[in-house]
Amino acid sequence: MTNTVASDPSARPPPVPLATLLGRELRGSKSEKPAVRFGYAALARRGEDHFLIKPDCLRVPGNASSTFSVFAIFDGHNGVSAALFAKEHLLDHVMSAIPQGISREEWLKLLPRALVPGFVKTDIDFQRKGEVSGTTATLVVVDGSTVTVGSVGDSRCILDSHDGVVSLLTVDHRLEENAEERERVTASGGEVGRLNLCGGHEVGPLRCWPGGLCLSRSIGDTDVGEFIVPIPHVKQVKLSSAGGRLIIASDGIWDALSSETAAKSCRGLPADLAAKLVVKEALKTSGLKDDTTCVVVDVGPSDHTLSPSSPGRNQKKIRSLLFGKRSQNVVGKLVNKLPSVGSVEELFEEGSAMLEERLGTDFPRKMNSSTFQCAICQMDQVYTEGLPASPSPYPSPTSKPSVGPYLCAECRKKKEAMEGKRPRATSISR
């Protein structure tokens, strides 16, 4: 079967309401949640890649039926501090942006938007430390058959569905490849160009100056400029009952392998061996030029397993796949054991770098008389300490906001700096 990468948004059917899809799931013949199996592999060159695997998170504390799983890749640069900080704090900041005591349907509906303040707050908190490192971040949340992905940078997540279609769930924020991001950076006060050698000869990929970063979005990078934003591209999909495979990896993989090649190279193998094989294929192609990290997540029916022929023969086949010449016949036999699949439903996608557009006018906010909750940092603030996201002032402390979510003074400064409305030096206290 020929594999293709889904890339034309206009050709896709309109998103199906989440409530409709969840209803189908509940009415289906299989009411239990799909099984989540995962594996990872990593080789370090600089030691700046980090990953997060949390398969047993609870949406409702103490309620085992509210389990969801989280997987993430953080590819650091100019040091490891930002990657470690994001690994430790990003998930908590995202979860704190979702009200407690709501239904699963409401939780899944709010999750894509909650990723935005979660990423921005992580960036603000890290920049307060005054360190100059930065990191990509690709955060994947799996709840039942619903997969939600938020990402900045170029650590990619792909979906390999069982009907042979490979889909990108992220967007690469590389200046070289993204004309829209180049225009945004220059409009916000940055300069985009290649490294200039003696004699005016330009080499290498497009970079943002000051700093020379190749990415237009990241967490950290205090020394580059606030126009390098932490606002994530977000996509949410619902898998069919047959599930699918997620491959989440740093650019050490994607600089060596296309999405289709990575997916094809490990089809039919269990997730732990698949991750090792993807790393092996990347090294075979380009060698260890960068930190190389891969997390493979299989979401599918709980009763589906790969059936080995016999312990001795199966071990020999797996050994040949990982360490010797691969047998196409073996892979073919394993692929044939996978179940048939229906289509993948797209629920949500948004990639705008404008914070006001991403938070929206109906973002959850807490209000009692003159106290409001900032939509980014989640801190309660008295009206006089901050302004609404929109330029329109409130007539009085007790009036309800008419446009945009409430932002405290510090988070509003961050928003304006990202849009090029404030000089970088005064964008936020550090």
UniProtKB/TrEMBL annotation:
<dbReference type="Pfam" id="PF00481">
    <property type="entry name" value="PP2C"/>
</dbReference>
<keyword id="KW-0464">Manganese</keyword>
<feature type="domain" description="PPM-type phosphatase">
    <location>
        <begin position="30"/>
        <end position="299"/>
    </location>
</feature>
<keyword id="KW-0378">Hydrolase</keyword>
<dbReference type="GO" id="GO:0046872">
    <property type="term" value="F:metal ion binding"/>
</dbReference>
<keyword id="KW-0904">Protein phosphatase</keyword>
<dbReference type="InterPro" id="IPR015655">
    <property type="entry name" value="PP2C"/>
</dbReference>
<dbReference type="InterPro" id="IPR001932">
    <property type="entry name" value="PPM-type_phosphatase-like_dom"/>
</dbReference>
<dbReference type="GO" id="GO:0004722">
    <property type="term" value="F:protein serine/threonine phosphatase activity"/>
</dbReference>
<keyword id="KW-0479">Metal-binding</keyword>
<comment type="similarity">
    <text>Belongs to the PP2C family.</text>
</comment>
<keyword id="KW-0460">Magnesium</keyword>
<protein>
    <recommendedName>
        <fullName>protein-serine/threonine phosphatase</fullName>
        <ecNumber>3.1.3.16</ecNumber>
    </recommendedName>
</protein>
<dbReference type="InterPro" id="IPR036457">
    <property type="entry name" value="PPM-type-like_dom_sf"/>
</dbReference>
